[in-house]
Amino acid sequence: MSKNHIYLSRRNLEVAIFLIATSMILCHVAADSPCAAQSDIQPAWSKQEISVLRSLWIGSLPPLPKDPSNAFADNPKAKALGKKFFFDARFSGNLKVSCATCHRPDMNFTDDLPLAHGIGSTVRRSMPLLGVAYNTWFFWDGRKDSLWSQALGPLENNVEHGFTRTACAYLISKYYLSEYEEIFGTMPDIANTVASPATEDTIVLKAWVTTRPEKKEEINRIYANMGKAIAAYVRTIVPGPARFDMYVDALLHNDMANLVRTLTPEELNGLQLFIGKAKCTNCHNGPLFTNSDFHNTGVPTPAGMPFDKGRADGIKKVLSDEFNCLGRYSDAGAQDCDELRFIDSDTKKYVGAFKTPTLRNVAERAPYMYGGQFATLKEVLEFYQHSKSHELGHGGLTDEDLTAIEAFLRTLSGPVKAD
Ligand code: HEC
Ligand code: HEC
Fold first, then answer.
1. Cα 32 → chain centroid
2. Which residue, of 103, 134, 295, 303, has the fewest CB within 10 Å?
3. Cα 388 from Cα 414, distance rounded (Å)
């Protein structure tokens, strides 16, 4: 426990809990009273700590960033169409899988499985879609550099939607023609066939290879537009204020009454550890609790799976992706694609590294890590306590520390907002 803390021993902590309980009752009876007794147990945050708390606060989240690679990112009609695509299971090989199968609105836009399941089983855990518009790279390995390009991956993945871009274009011409044309212009004739370059099915691949180049271009354009519409919707999914944010809000506004009743002493202790001794903010920082970078935490490979190289493979994939920021289907000018142009391509450095996930609503979406290796937050924290990864260094966390950090993580749950 840090020196900054006014309660120093376990005994004092117990007294403090007693005080908070008593004065909560008093506050409840006389809601306007200043509840002075509770203020005694507030940590004496230093200026520097307050600035860290402010940086983690949801009030520091800027407005949605522009996506120059998607000219339709903020187009309300594209957003409405994208939402329909997101929930439409007709875009799948068995007519049963939509984006929402694995990204369920009632589950923080993820699911509760260690490895996601569509037509078949995937090799990684589904990801929550909270505040993804603020990301630079997408997927655990960052193999995509925009939300629209990301959306095109699962559609043609044989264990997710198990579909093809040609079949997507055909279904759009069949079911969504007028909505599509109103946004993206005239749709060319699309035959009812399946053809795709992203498949191991030799018949489907051959059908693509033998398609005329102009036709391929038309299909790719419709497919990219489908992704742009989906992205216009997905980017609106953002986390709302959690109890932690209410605490920081009260702290920044000197609102003593709310300050003292928002977080318990144990949660405050966890928060102090999180931004202090435990060094969690080395990676889980900013209002989304992620630095959007890739790290090797030394998490074990899930049983029965081959070693996953993570970001090391992701770098190669994003550079060769026909739908990346510099590709012909992107609306960006070359100067808009700095992240891709100046990508850190040191693949050796990133072997086994995965994207730092947001910790917003983390308590609501077990299991954890890229392969769903851990069933509970407790297991994640016990793993951190013992991890030998050179990227982690947690200053010898005790079991009590872990309990406090877990209590703090539970204060990061808030409502999810989506258009
Ligand atoms: C079968 C389950 C499944 C389906 C269906 C699915 N996803 Fe995913 N999604 C995943 C998995 C698994 C990951 C992580 C994959 C990886 O890293 O390789 C992921 C990752 C993502 C991400 C990256 C989030 C981030 O923080 O980087 C986004 C965005 C996303 N999916 C959106 C979509 C959209 C849009 C659709 C529909 C077009 C879709 N997903 C369909 C399982 C699915
Ligand atoms: C070196 C960077 C780094 C540090 C420091 C770090 N984390 Fe993480 N954290 C990650 C990465 C990367 C992952 C995903 C790892 C994976 O799937 O292999 C992760 C995953 C998690 C998860 C699981 C979230 C999910 O959605 O699966 C939790 C919870 C978590 N970290 C909490 C913490 C806490 C608490 C601390 C401090 C004790 C901490 N982390 C320190 C980088 C870091």
1. 40
2. 303
3. 33
**Given CA atoms 248, 249, 253, 258 in this order, what sign does their dihedral have?**
negative
Is the preceding peptide bond at 241 cis, omega within 30 degrees of 0? no
**What residues line ligand 2, using a CB cutoff of 6 Å?**
278-280, 282-284, 295, 297, 299, 354, 356-357, 359, 362, 368-370, 377, 380, 384, 391-392, 394, 405
Pairwise CA distance, residues 155 & 167, whole Å? 10
Task: Kindly state the tokens that stand for 346.
Answer: 């040191």
Q: What is the mean pLDDT of residues 120-149?
A: 97
Q: Kindly indicate the confidence band of residue 395, based on its pLDDT and cuts at 50, 70 and 90.
A: low
Task: Report how far residue 177's alpha carbon sits from residue 179's, in angstroms, rounded to the nearest whole number.
Answer: 6
Per-residue pLDDT tens over the stretch 64-74: 999 999 999 99
d(CA 30, CA 230): 50
Atom 43 of ligand 1, residue of closest alpha carbon: 102
Indicate whether 214 pLDDT > 80: yes
Q: Give the residue, out of 139, 297, 391, 405, with the most ligand 2 atoms within 8 A of its beta carbon, to mutate for a pocket test.
A: 297
Give dist(CA 361, CA 142) in Å, integer: 21
Rounded CA Rg of the chain:
24
Judged by phi (left if over 0) then psi (alpha if -120 to 50, else beta), residue 21 lies in alpha
Which residue's CA is minimally distant from atom 34 of ligand 2?
280
Q: Using alpha carbons only, what angle is made at residue 269 by residues 372 and 376, rounded to the nearest 5 degrees?
A: 15
Q: Report residue 100 as tokens.
A: 């929402």
Q: From CA 365, how far away is CA 245, in angstroms rounded? A: 19
Q: Which two tokens stand for residue 281?
A: 């903010």
Name the burial class of residue 31, with classes exposed (0-12), middle (13-18) and buried (19+) by CB atoms within 10 angstroms of its CB.
exposed
Q: CA–CA separation, 34 vs 395, rounded Å?
A: 38
Q: 377-386, pLDDT tens digit by residue? A: 999 999 999 8
Ligand 1: which residue has its CA nearest to atom 36? 99
Q: How far apart are the first and last CA of the chain?
A: 42
- Ligand 2 midpoint to CA 207 (Å): 44
CA distance 26 to 40: 15
